[in-house]
Design brief:
- This protein is mainly beta.
- The protein has 3 domains: 50-153, Fimbrillin-like (Immunoglobulin-like, Sandwich); 155-283, Immunoglobulin-like (Sandwich); 299-502, no CATH class.
- It is built from 6 helices and 31 strands.
- It has helices at residues 124-129, 344-349, 363-369, 375-378, 393-402, 406-413, and strands spanning 4-6, 50-57, 65-75, 78-80, 93-99, 112-116, 133-139, 152-153, 156-164, 175-187, 192-202, 209-210, 216-223, 226-228, 235-239, 242-246, 252-254, 258-268, 273-283, 299-305, 311-317, 320-323, 339-340, 355-357, 372-373, 445-446, 452-453, 458-466, 471-478, 485-490, 500-502.
- The strands form 8 sheets. Strands 1-19-18-9-13-12 form a 6-stranded mixed sheet, with no helix packed on it. It has a 6-stranded antiparallel sheet with strand order 4-3-2-5-7-8, with no helix packed on it. Strands 6, 10, 11, 15 and 16 form a 5-stranded antiparallel sheet that branches.
- Helix 5 (393-402) packs across helix 6.
- The longest helix is centred in the last third of the chain and has 10 residues, at 393-402.
Length: 504
């Protein structure tokens, strides 16, 4: 029998104050005026690095969108955007902010978005991006005062706790799968989940480890709000070669912003496993509570080779394993050759073919920095060695967090030598510490027109995250700053590439 113990009855509000600074709502000619500044300061949202923002007429998404899913990125603690400013409406504006940013999330004329959690949350990037938050605030007509906006956590978190009945039971090989709805219809005007659907078997994040009390913890899943019937097949457990599917035993309503500890008592008999589940509920207050330990020092592990036989040192940063140098393979991992384009005019006319080059087509630069790939080589999903992949933007953000936050990650990710200023000098104060182990080098870029630039001063790396059909996200490090930075550029550019996987 499942017992529901409600520890608190209130819904979490993630403390996130957002201020919008604007000029007057109308000018002397009574014409709408653009917002002169639009910056968001989110307090307590340390896990948030990027948000989407809408500005519409008050209480409706059916009319004009004065900001239509503008992307705001965190820089030195403030969220700013390069998107055009909003035009202030005579009727006031409804400001809506959400996280994580998703292209084309809200259909035109509708305030209902279909938001999904990942079905495989063992990938840390997918786990992080399953945590959906949103909030609204109204900017009144003629208002000159800043307004405050709070984003609420709209999804929930479930923690699994295995409690063996009897001592000495080893559950380190236990594997859990949860059957949950994976899609939610989110009302952006009300900032609430209206319904959920699409049942799927969810792979949680983490693995079971025993604590001092003898319980096995460390596994969690982020889920959309939903009602679970007590007799529904909810959890599949595999332990010691035995597998079984079990129900909660009592109906459960999973609510927005709540965290659920599911204590699963397990009794082994000669014939079967006997499982009973108790559920406790509390506000989900402490960030994402990612269940892994961040290593205090970078750990080097076995090196890696690509199809061509090139060897790469590998470092461990938290749960992530990273190549410690740039990719230099001339073949995809299935043996297919990647097109080498040396001629600038030919590089400039390539549309969607994967290709590589190296800086100035100079063999010394190839040896020093590796190869520059256009983004089309990444989208084959065969560029990295088997079992490895090109990191998403979210996965780079995890590295930034590991390296001290995006405003300091550049210094921690840059190599300890090789960075030059515009006087072609290499002063010690512009070199990195490489405390992250990433060992980022200033390999420069090949532009869409085929020209090369910025060797010695900038290092650029692709992510596997696309902005649209023509542009994708990258990150760069700069000789003159301690921060890491993100960028969106044409898929035709040549950037360096790193590969990543997670420790098994």
């Amino acid at each position: 029998m499942t017992r529901i113990m409600r520890k608190h009855q209130y819904i979490l509000l993630l403390a996130a104050a957002a201020t919008l600074a604007a000029g007057s709502c109308k000018d002397n000619n009574n014409t709408p005026q653009e917002l002169q500044e639009l910056t968001l300061n989110i307090n307590g949202g340390d896990d948030i690095n990027e948000i989407g923002v809408y500005a519409t007429e008050e209480n409706t998404f059916s009319g004009t969108r004065y900001l239509d899913n503008a992307r705001f990125s965190k820089d030195n603690g403030l969220f700013t955007s390069t998107d055009p400013g909003a035009v202030l409406s005579d009727n006031g504006l409804l400001i809506t902010a959400y996280h994580p940013y998703t292209q084309n999330i809200l259909p035109p004329g509708s305030d209902i978005a279909q938001v999904k959690t990942a079905t495989d949350q063992s990938n840390i990037g997918e786990y992080l991006n399953s945590d959906f938050l949103a909030g609204t605030a109204v900017m009144a007509p003629d208002s000159r005062s800043p307004i405050s906006l709070t984003v609420n956590r709209l999804f929930a978190k479930v923690n699994l706790i295995l409690k063996p009945v009897g001592s000495g039971t080893d559950l380190s090989d236990a594997v859990a799968r949860l059957t949950l709805n994976s899609t939610a219809d989110v009302n952006f005007t009300a900032c609430e989940v209206e319904s959920s659907s699409t049942p799927a078997q969810i792979i949680p994040r983490g693995s079971f480890n025993v604590n001092e009390e003898g319980d096995w913890t460390g596994v969690s899943v982020i889920t959309v709000p939903q009602d679970i019937k007590g007799d529904a097949e909810f959890i599949t457990l595999t332990m010691g070669g035995e597998s079984g599917t079990y129900s909660l035993g009592q109906d459960l309503s999973i609510a927005s912003g709540q965290e659920y500890d599911m204590e699963i008592s397990i009794t082994r008999t000669a014939e079967k496993l006997i499982v009973s589940i108790e559920v406790s509920e509390s506000p989900w207050i402490s960030g994402l509570n990612i269940d892994f330990s961040i290593d205090e020092e970078i750990e080097k592990i076995d090196s890696l080779s690509d199809y061509d036989g090139n060897r790469y040192e590998v470092v461990k940063a938290g749960p992530q394993l990273w190549m410690a140098s740039n990719l230099r393979t001339t073949h995809y991992n299935d043996g297919t050759p990647i097109t080498h384009i040396s001629d600038a005019d030919q590089w400039a006319v390539v549309t969607d073919e994967g290709a590589y080059s190296f800086y100035n087509e100079d063999e010394a630069m190839r040896e020093k920095y590796g190869l520059l790939y256009n983004w089309h080589a990444l989208k084959t999903e065969k560029l990295c060695p088997e079992g490895w992949h090109v990191p998403t933007m979210a996965e780079y953000e995890m590295l930034f967090d590991f390296a001290g936050g995006i405003e300091f990650a550049g210094e921690a990710m840059k190599s300890t030598s090789g960075w030059r200023n515009y006087q072609n000098e290499e002063p010690s104060d512009i070199q990195g510490s490489n405390s992250s182990g990433f060992n980022g080098t200033p390999g420069g870029v090949r532009y869409a027109d085929g020209s090369f630039a910025n060797e010695g001063r900038y290092g650029y790396w692709w992510t596997s995250t696309a902005e649209n059909d023509f542009e994708s996200f990258g990150i760069y490090l700069y000789y003159g700053g301690a921060a890491a930075s993100t960028i969106t550029e044409s898929n035709r550019l040549g950037y360096n590439v790193r590969c990543i996987k997670y420790q098994e």
